[in-house]
Amino acid sequence: MAVADAVAAGADRASDSDSVPVEIPPIVSVDDHVIEPPHVWESRLPARYRDIGPRVVTAPGEITYEGGVLSWTEGTGRPTAWWYYEDLHYPMVRTHSAVAFPREELQMVGITFEEMQPGAWQVAPRLADMDIGHVEASLCFPSFPRFCGQAFAEAGDKELALLCVQVYNDWMVEEWCGPSGGRLIPLCLIPLWDVDLAAAEVRRNAERGVRAVCFSEIPPNLGLPSIHSGYWDRFFAACEETATVVCMHIGSSSKMVSTSPDAPGAVGSALVHSNATYSLVDFLMSGVFVQFPGLKVAYSEGQMGWLPYILDRVDVVWKENAAWGGVADKVPEPPSTYFRDHVFVCFFDDKVGLANIDAIGLETITTETDYPHSDSTWPHSKELLGAQMAHLTQPEVDAICRDNAIRMLGLELPTAAELRG
Q: Are the beta carbons of 303 and 277 closer than 8 angstroms?
């Protein structure tokens, strides 16, 4: 179905007044977050690294956020939990555990572990909060290392940095996900600074059942090679070989889109889809999906309402600019044709996207709750999804809220239909 035809079909369905109320199945959320407990690295690193490895110190701090950039000073302000690592002092901010506060108190200020929602960093309270929020299973991105482990890539001592990546992954598998009975889904890091070490870490974790890995949506923003360079091919090959999904959270390039250095935070928040948009165009135009036909990638927190236009636009550019665009030899078919076989997207509040699922592709859409961040729909995710999905059929709702994520991550969970018997 052409994109324009699919958009029209979605609009017709959205206006159908005879829709039957749907049931929201227990959600599989593919984008939530964990705040690492203070002991993670101190308890696992060799003793010689305990004084320079990641550790938590509570001290006063002041936080600002403008132009898409988080800044801080230490020594004055409110008590704040700081992660110390080499020369880095990184503060935990109230938005890291936003669900612990009313919306009107959700300022960019420091936070201590005692003030956080217990489910943000402890397994048993997290599972209890998942029950409250109608979530059966959850994939959690990191906090202190940042969304793809940038903190370790920026470190001076790469031997220590590699150990920190491995410690995080061991903790993720053994302590965070291990006691959860399969409800917390492991999402691991790679050493971004070395593609061969990255491929080895993918394989090490795949051997113990991990099927998701963090990656940067725009690596050059981190001073790393682009996906057009061929540098990442051995990493992509390892992911394809092990059926590991490459998960890219907005902000995993450490650069959020804004219009000016003095733009308020709301400007950047309205533009959060932009990094996902840039990254998807990169992948569709790179030939990576041609070279690695089994590779799967997933975009987190970028919503999806922008997709019908961009999928149409890449095809127009591919066709009209074939003589000089630089992709005709690498991408033999219209770029949008690779999307549904290789890409997953997710949303938590996107009426426009849900009105255009035919143009996007039902099989690509998954759900997130973004717990415990400021955009989180917890504890009202079920009610919000029910209101936004009233025009969809029950099989469509089942796919978006649960079944697509099970297929994406290879989870051993029953489908929505199987749950209902």
A: no
